[in-house]
Amino acid sequence: MSSYIIGLDIGTTSVKALMFDYSGRIIAEHEKKYPILYPALNWAEQDPLEIEIAAIHVLKTVILESNTPKKLLKGIGISSAMHSLICATDDGEPLSNSIIWADSRSQNQADHLKQSNSALFFKTGTPLHPMTPLAKLVWMKELAWQPYKDANKYFSIKEFLVKRWFNEEVVDYSVAASTGLFDVEKMDWNEEALTEAGITRDNLFSPVPPTYLLKGLKSSIAKEIGIDQQVPFTIGASDGPLANLGVGALKPGDTAITIGTSCAIRQFTAKPLLDKKEEIFTYRFDSKSWITGGASNNGGIVLAWLQSLFSSEGDELSMEDMSQLAASSPPGANNLLFLPYITGERAPIWDSQAKGTFIGLTSTHQKGDLIRAAMEGVILNVYQIGQALNRLGNEHVNLFANGGFSHSDIWVSILADTFGKTVHLPESHQSSAWGAAWLALFSLNEVSTLADIKKVVPMKDTIEPNLNNHLLYKRLYEIFKDVYGQINTTYTRLDNLQRP
Question: What Pfam families does its record include (predicted)?
Fold first, then answer.
């Protein structure tokens, strides 16, 4: 029996553990969901202790369900969502919930940073936006928020687990880079950003490369999971670059598009690409590469919203039903356009006050038209981010799709038609977990290069674009990109409608 590796992916709405053999075949997988808490307007938090329990549960479950000898487990690689922030004691005990990327309480602070210190973007590569821990820390400082005042450490959900499980105070480059506090060229904390946040480097963990090995798992955690205490964990990276790695999108022209709850389009680059328009990010991955692209708040969450609206008790639409309804509507959704900003937006407009908007809605439109327009709106927004990458000289030669949307044939076809490019689909949509597992194999010298993953990524299909549909989507995109600029002030007016 061959050895195996586990990828642990700590996401926004769930944690997943997947056990792979060295060829990328999934031996066992398990997912545990957890809620997002909304204790106040514009706040979005999660209970870090609940996430820890979920992480232990999924690891324990795949170990048990795989029915493989424990001695064959070579290691575990960790992937995590970006931009979370926890206030904690020196011992790593949380004093706050984990404040996630969807939290926009620090909108005013982010706006002020853009006006007073916009040069920070060109040092950190992170757009000045309320998603960032930097903006959240400034909010905490200005309001003298009690957890902030009482805390000695500030860290992400991954660092929370690393501290509790290994008693190490380290953070991988890519998670650090997404904070807005990390110098994208020097691979260290940026003193100017720390001053803005009112903290010092002593309040943060030490940045380390993604291949850093964590050893000496706490005995009680090892026992609960059901593994040997000496099984090495690789600290890994954030879910973005690991999704690219997981599909083998590593060379120039390789573009990975991930649509889960949110969505993103990314490329690996050999140098930081700092966008003068500040539409896209550049995060450090390791000593030789960066990940460049843009993330949108609005991916599968848009379809989940419509699914809840169109379902009734005893008659709930499945995502397969949603895809079938969308397929009943022609490209262009019978002249219906949707701006997908139902949770505000990050790239490329960076406007947390933006709203979802149907343009052209008539009494003749059916459910299928609304669903297709929503799918098209999400893809058009991804395409707009992709155009920003093109503007910086990064062409899209090979498209790789991953995330939950890759199960929808119609949605992937819309992607291919909009870009006018062939889309490559992997067997599993859990590319971040496979990327974390492969990175662990590399850090343990079980594989010689990261690029070797291209030889073993199990691919399912390729979707070719329809030229006629591509021409239609080019015209629709011209309308899409103009509409926001024509109505964006309306969003602010609506926000102020109920205020005294």
Answer: FGGY_C (PF02782), FGGY_N (PF00370)
